From TrEMBL:
<dbReference type="Pfam" id="PF25378">
    <property type="entry name" value="PUA_NSUN2"/>
</dbReference>
<keyword id="KW-0489">Methyltransferase</keyword>
<dbReference type="GO" id="GO:0005737">
    <property type="term" value="C:cytoplasm"/>
</dbReference>
<keyword id="KW-0694">RNA-binding</keyword>
<feature type="binding site">
    <location>
        <position position="267"/>
    </location>
    <ligand>
        <name>S-adenosyl-L-methionine</name>
    </ligand>
</feature>
<keyword id="KW-0808">Transferase</keyword>
<feature type="compositionally biased region" description="Low complexity">
    <location>
        <begin position="751"/>
        <end position="760"/>
    </location>
</feature>
<dbReference type="GO" id="GO:0000049">
    <property type="term" value="F:tRNA binding"/>
</dbReference>
<dbReference type="InterPro" id="IPR029063">
    <property type="entry name" value="SAM-dependent_MTases_sf"/>
</dbReference>
<feature type="binding site">
    <location>
        <position position="210"/>
    </location>
    <ligand>
        <name>S-adenosyl-L-methionine</name>
    </ligand>
</feature>
<dbReference type="GO" id="GO:0016428">
    <property type="term" value="F:tRNA (cytidine-5-)-methyltransferase activity"/>
</dbReference>
<feature type="region of interest" description="Disordered">
    <location>
        <begin position="456"/>
        <end position="535"/>
    </location>
</feature>
<feature type="region of interest" description="Disordered">
    <location>
        <begin position="744"/>
        <end position="781"/>
    </location>
</feature>
<feature type="compositionally biased region" description="Basic and acidic residues">
    <location>
        <begin position="17"/>
        <end position="29"/>
    </location>
</feature>
<feature type="active site" description="Nucleophile">
    <location>
        <position position="320"/>
    </location>
</feature>
<feature type="compositionally biased region" description="Basic residues">
    <location>
        <begin position="1"/>
        <end position="15"/>
    </location>
</feature>
<dbReference type="InterPro" id="IPR049560">
    <property type="entry name" value="MeTrfase_RsmB-F_NOP2_cat"/>
</dbReference>
Length: 781
């Protein structure tokens, strides 16, 4: 596409009412390659901001136009993550080094030098090219499978920075204000679990919040991959995140204070103009007004976060925008507003290999007619007319002295040409004192200003319909999983702390930070909206000392090492199908919050009802819950097997017991037929095995199975099984092939084993009945 016709549409400010239409042609139908990767207004704006030196600007623009390389992160920090990293280094890198495309060598992936433990990676081949390449199909298939099971997260490099700088520890209460689709939440959860012994649950938790219900559902999908009982997914506008009260320990329980967080991430909705390398259409749609309409919301979210942060706590504010109006302007005015309660942290000694530039201390505001202004006062009434109302003093820098005092240079700007990444902005804040400005009047004035700013934004949105769409721009590669939004929001019927009535405004303790937070930041409940969860059955916490839960825990002899307070379920007609588990900290939080928190989901599924007649227990172990339960299960249910047994199990996911080694058979027979059982392989205990794993496996393998009368069936999700086969047997396998594979083997075992045919057939039926949608065998049938 030549630039002739299209240029007409660029930089036309308010006359260009619909950026989707240029020359009467709908731009959204333009092919990817045809899109012009430039924008005169963008160029003019950023040259004027002096975001880089003049002679560096061409390199910046050139990088902004090129397609991003493929980036990914190995998730977790445990042995399994190390195995995956070793597999990349010792298996895939040599293979890629040997590979060429059209006679040209390929530069293999390399670790991001600033990401700890070589868990962050960059591959110069763009994602689309990787997908299409026959030569690299093995590596692509590896990435896809490991991403599906949660061992790898496809995430833009710069998007990995904010969680690293948040410095999360296991005892922290963490709030991720704008969390969907959740790649940063995943990092926060990993950090929460990182310094906790395997099998133990951290004392802290992560609340992953998003204002958009459908996007919050994407977080549920992430959560299911991460297997943490320490997460709650909620659905609130960040700027109205509710106060949750707990007893104030200093008042002997007579007063309440607001629960505050040790760490808060505000990865706010933004115009996303740092993502042009991925979102090419930003070039044609870019307008400086996008930042103007987002600024008040971004500021409100950050202010709410500041209230909810503990004194001494840390907060990271980030955007994938380069616009100072969404970045330094927000930080400067919020710091100024809170008069010394917050400070910018100097992070120049952290992630030192990450190239960055300091925050801007001066910038200009562009009006719709393309003029640039240094101060609010210069937007004259004649020039702006009615539109002057659309510009607010908060878009502009504070005085030079104040910008110096606030150390705005400590903000971090990341540019694409520095290290082949997207563009990004990060500011790390610390709360050094309770927020103690006289907020009563200020909050009212703020609320009024905010309401009026939001009205203007709404007007603008109805004008052009662009900014709303862009709120969701983020830097990650995560895609919405099909059907994720079918996940329903949970309601809790837990007994909440006695409600003392009244508004949050009038409640709370009366000293320090918390009192101010509660009194001075009015809690504006989210406006009523259509509630997709109304038809859902409520979650209730189950009593471990009675009823069906007691029967389950007794059957599996769950040890007292496991806290029994965290089991919960959805009850329907007095009955339940699945049992979930949350950590004590999550349970406490949910109980404190009562109905205030719009919880979308929480916990890990640990037991699921089976329909097998004669089974010892009406509930089986669920795959995702096994790592959590494992340390608390007696040896009887955990059988240590040899590598050849593991191989038989993975090659034939429903082997006859007689196909396993006599020792393994013996241990399996200690458990009654028709029961869950776990097969474990610890490479460290089998160093002398003649038959070695294909790869240099070091992590303990844990395979949940169903013990039938004459056979054993793997109870794993198809993706997980593919990942395991890939890692343990070194075979790349299409997940649909797993089902076919199983079916063939089932038939074989039934027809070729006459002696066992009767029990095997019976067993086969039994298992078919028992397995639900998530199981491999159902996919086979
Ligand atoms: C930049 S994205 C967040 C990306 C996410 N942190 C990640 O790493 O995957 C911004 C998110 O903010 C959400 N959002 C928009 N307005 C919001 C608000 N008022 N409060 C909270 N979240 C909001 C959007 O739905 C979107 O999911």
């Amino acid at each position: 596409m030549g630039g002739r016709g299209r240029r007409k549409g660029y930089g036309k400010g308010r006359n260009n009412k619909n950026a989707d239409h240029v020359n009467g042609e709908r731009q959204s139908y333009k092919k990817f390659e045809e899109l012009r990767r430039d924008n005169d207004s963008f160029r003019k704006y950023y040259v004027a901001q002096r975001i880089v030196e003049d002679d560096e600007f061409p390199a910046f623009m050139e990088a902004m136009r090129t397609v991003l390389p493929t980036n990914f992160r190995i998730t977790g920090s445990r042995q399994q993550a190390i195995d995956i990293r070793e597999q990349i280094m010792h298996e895939f890198i040599p293979y890629i080094k040997e590979t060429s495309i059209d006679g040209a060598d390929i530069e293999p992936p390399h670790p991001l030098e600033w990401y700890p433990n070589n868990f962050g990676w960059q591959f110069s081949i763009p994602r689309i090219a990787l997908k299409k390449s026959n030569e690299l199909s093995k590596f692509h298939s590896f990435l896809v499978t490991e991403t599906e099971v949660g061992n790898i997260s496809r995430q833009e490099a710069v998007s990995m920075v904010p969680p690293l700088l948040l410095d999360v520890h296991s005892n922290h209460y963490v709030l991720d204000m704008c969390a969907a689709p959740g790649s940063k939440t995943a990092q926060l959860l990993e950090a929460l679990h990182a310094d906790v012994e395997e099998g133990k649950t951290p004392a802290g938790f992560v609340i992953a919040n998003d204002a958009d219900y459908k996007r919050a559902c994407m977080l549920v999908h992430q959560m299911n991959r991460l297997n943490s009982p320490n997460i709650i997914v909620t659905n609130h506008s960040g700027e109205r995140f509710p106060n949750i009260y707990q007893a104030d320990p200093h008042s002997g329980g007579s007063k309440r204070e607001i629960v505050q967080f040790d760490r808060i991430l505000c990865d706010v909705p933004c115009s996303g103009d740092g993502t042009t390398r991925k979102n090419v259409r930003i070039w044609e749609k870019w307008r400086s007004d996008d930042a103007h309409s987002l600024n008040p919301l971004q500021s409100k979210i950050l202010q709410r976060a500041a209230y909810l942060l503990k004194t001494g706590g840390r907060l990271v504010y980030s955007t994938c925008s380069l616009n100072p109006i969404e970045n330094e302007a927000i930080i400067a005015h919020v710091l100024d507003h809170f008069e010394g309660a917050l400070r910018l942290v100097d992070v120049s000694e952290q992630l030192v290999a990450l190239k960055r530039r300091p925050g801007l201390k001066t910038w200009k505001v562009m009006t719709r007619d393309g003029n640039l202004h240094d101060s609010f006062e210069t937007i004259s009434l004649e020039e702006g007319g009615r539109s002057r109302r659309k510009y607010i003093p908060n878009f502009f820098p504070l005085t030079a002295e104040r910008m110096d005092e606030l150390h705005i240079e400590r903000c971090m700007r990341i540019y694409p040409h520095l290290q082949n990444t997207g563009g990004f902005f990060v500011a790390v804040l610390e709360k050094v004192a309770p927020i103690s400005v006289d907020e009563k009047k200020k909050a009212a004035a703020d609320a009024a200003r905010f309401a009026s700013a939001m009205d203007k934004i709404r007007d603008q949105h109805s004008d052009n319909g662009t900014a709303t769409k862009r709120q969701a721009v983020d830097t990650d590669d995560t895609e919405e999983p099909a059907g994720a939004c079918e996940m329903k929001r949970a309601k809790f019927s837990v007994a909440a702390e006695p409600d003392r009535g009244g508004d949050d405004d009038e409640e709370g303790g009366d000293d320090g930070d918390t009192a101010q937070s509660s009194k001075k930041m009015p809690y504006l409940p989210d406006s009523p909206r259509e509630d997709p969860a109304l038809s859902e059955n409520p979650f209730v916490f189950l009593d471990a000392d009675k009823g069906e839960l007691k029967t389950i825990l007794d059957y599996y002899s769950i040890k007292n090492t496991m806290s029994k307070n965290g089991f919960l379920s959805r009850i329907e007609n007095g009955d339940f199908r699945s049992v979930y588990y949350v950590s004590d900290s999550v349970r406490d939080m949910i109980q404190l919050a009562g109905q205030r928190l719009r919880v979308v989901n929480t916990g890990i599924k640990v037991f699921s009802r089976n329909c097998v007649k004669g089974a010892g227990c009406a509930f089986r172990l669920v795959c995702e819950g096994v790592p959590l339960l494992l340390p608390h299960l007696p040896n009887k249910y955990v059988v240590d097997a040899s590598f050849s047994d593991i191989k038989s199990l993975l090659e034939d996911i429903n082997p006859l017991l007689t196909a396993l080694s006599p020792e393994t058979q013996e241990c399996i027979k200690a458990v009654d037929p028709s029961s869950s059982i776990i097969i474990r392989y610890d490479p460290a205990k089998h160093l002398d095995d003649k038959e070695k794993p294909y790869t240099r496996l070091t992590a303990v393998l844990v395979i949940p199975c169903w013990r039938g009368h004459a056979s054993l069936s793997v109870h794993m999700d198809k993706n997980q099984l593919c990942s395991l086969i890939q890692r343990v047997l070194g075979r790349t396998i299409n997940k649909n092939a797993v089902g076919g594979f199983k079916l063939t083997n089932n038939r074989k075992s039934q027809s070729e084993a006459p002696a066992a045919s009767s029990p095997a057939t019976k067993n086969g039926e039994e298992e078919k009945e028992e397995m639900d949608g998530e199981q491999v065998t159902e996919a086979a049938s």
